[in-house]
Amino acid sequence: MTNECGWIAQAGRSPVRGSLKGTEKADWLIIGAGITGLNAAHTLAQMHPHARIVIVDRQRAAQGASARNSGFAVAHEHPGTDELLGRKGFADYQVDTEISRVASLEVRQRIARHGIECDFRDDGYFLR
């Protein structure tokens, strides 16, 4: 049994890239090719179309923590006890939830704008 993310296994193998050697020049360096790093690089490429953007990661793109989320993009988390209405953590929960909702909307918009085929479904949420 291997410890491999199912959706990465379904994507198939990509060519192995060699380690960086020598000096690389870049206008922007993104460390980490997870969902956040790739989105940062994509946004930078839109804002600065002639810039050289280098992304480095020790693993395959989206293989680390991004793979462990199993492909879920949730807009908010279930509040903890101290985050409920009337509790001291509620204001922070509201800020975190708003940031998550904006990020989730951005994911949906990028999928639609670029016609990304990724089996995205916007139905259902699982809490245990």
What does this 3D model show about the protein?
With 128 residues, the chain is mainly alpha-helical. It has 2 domains: 1-71, no CATH class; 72-128, no CATH class. It contains 4 helices and 2 strands; from the N terminus they run αβαβαα. It has helices spanning 6-11, 35-47, 65-68, 90-114; strands spanning 28-31, 53-56. It has a two-stranded parallel ribbon with strand order 1-2. The longest helix is centred in the C-terminal third of the chain and has 25 residues, at 90-114. The protein starts with 5 loop residues before the first helix and ends in a 14-residue tail after the last helix.
Brief sketch in words of this structure:
The chain has 128 residues and is mainly α. It contains 4 helices and 2 strands. Helices cover 38% and strands 6% of the residues.
Biggest sheet statistics: 2 strands, parallel
Strand percentage: 5-15%
Number of helices: 4
Broad structural category = mainly alpha
Helix content: 25-40%
pLDDT under 50 segments (min length 5)? none
- Which shape, going by the Cα principal axes? globular
Query: SSE string, helix = H, strand = E?
Result: HEHEHH
Average pLDDT reading: 81
The total domain count is 2
C-alpha Rg, in Å? 18 Å
| Oligomer designation | single chain
**End-to-end gap:** 27 Å
Number of strands: 2
Strand order of the largest sheet: 1-2
